[in-house]
């Protein structure tokens, strides 16, 4: 009997977990058409329809549900076998939002690597949530509110917004209590809706210009260049506020802080490198405890 290729089985597994060819393609770094073609070829080889193609996604057929559970177990075993036989330096992959990676993680990496020379920490800067199932991710930092089903989590910090600008732009302005009194300068927007959440849509100034960016980190860089006022999580600009590169114009009061925050999440039972993973967990938690004591 001829067995299906591993690529076809991985394409089927990803599609079965996401129930969407596009999301499966993103996970596997393939095109949507390539994933759909692999799945179709697998169905032809097996002589069984694995998915019902729906207007908005996919649905596993009855025979495919049990088949997927067995395929998933088999792929996990293959991954474990590859890890066990390799003699490489432990490599832990950390998934985290791009702006968090740029503003918080990167400046701290040299200290971590100096203390852990036998550990390779790989970062995956993405807004897409890690599944921990075939995506190669060991740990993830998420913005959200617990619980996170099926995952262990550590609360790292609440999201407190702060309006910041370059001292070159602000001059002698002092921190204001009411954000509605913000000086009418150019407002720097990012992919989040922080300004609208704080001010309300109807209160957004009409006599100012706006610059829009895809990530908070880009808005922060623009603020550093004196291009306007950015409203971002305090955590992301802590370093620039400390060294005076940015000035705080407004700090969100305690009663305005919501329940969302930064959390470190991961599966309880590691697929690989459990000791190395724990070192990264402990380091991240210590860094937050040092900068943001309870």
UniProtKB/TrEMBL annotation:
Domain HTH lysR-type: 4-61
UniProt keyword DNA-binding, yes or no: yes
Transmembrane segments: none
Highest taxon of the lineage: Bacteria
Gene3D superfamilies linked to this entry: Periplasmic binding protein-like II, Winged helix-like DNA-binding domain superfamily/Winged helix DNA-binding domain
Keyword Hydrolase: no
Protein name: Gcv operon activator
Species of origin: Roseibium alexandrii
Name of the encoding gene: gcvA_6
